[in-house]
Fold this sequence. Notes:
By secondary structure, the chain is an alpha/beta fold.
Amino acid sequence: MIRVVTIDDEPLALRQLEMYIGKIPFLELVAACPSAAAARPFVEQADILYVDINMPDLSGMDFVRSLEHPPLVVFTTAYSEYALEGFKVHAADYLLKPFSFQEFEASAAHLRDRIEAARPRAESRPEALTFKLDYKTVRVDPARIRYVESMSEYLKIWLRDEQAPLVVLYSLKRLAEQLPEDRFLRIHRSYLVNLSEIREYTRSSVTLDGGPTLPVGDIYRPALTAVLSGK
């Protein structure tokens, strides 16, 4: 899955990008931001930034120049004269508004090929997960995770032998992709659990050893039932 952040001060433009991204199965929208300042906390999560150039507080061009290690950047603007300047800051692509879904899709496919070519051929699941927390980096052994709760852009990661959760800016979908599929399962749009922690379950909930009881979403129930019935 390729993670995407969009930046545009025009709500209709942001909505159009969200619709386009939703139609492409290999793209995941991390955040849709009305300004460069609003996007800054999400940059490290992104594989691609779609950035409008003409914005009132800080232009998209200046924002990209300010990033020490930017992801791939696609500039979106109604002004063709910015194209050359965009490529000078190593933009991966340039979409001239108004652009069609077909143009967007073709650009996304090209970027996907570029990203996949740069990735290692064999990706192994990490022995430990790494999260940025305030001004430090925290490593978490997946085996210590009991369950994970999503709260908008943040996650509460509940660990064994810890009274309080680890709160991180992270995507639940992204975390699910990094955890071993035979040990962790998403049971709700807001919850992911370590299967070994489940003590009992019903059609609508699971109860973990020592609590709590978590809801089971309708679309996740068949997979959960299949896994637990086979154990």
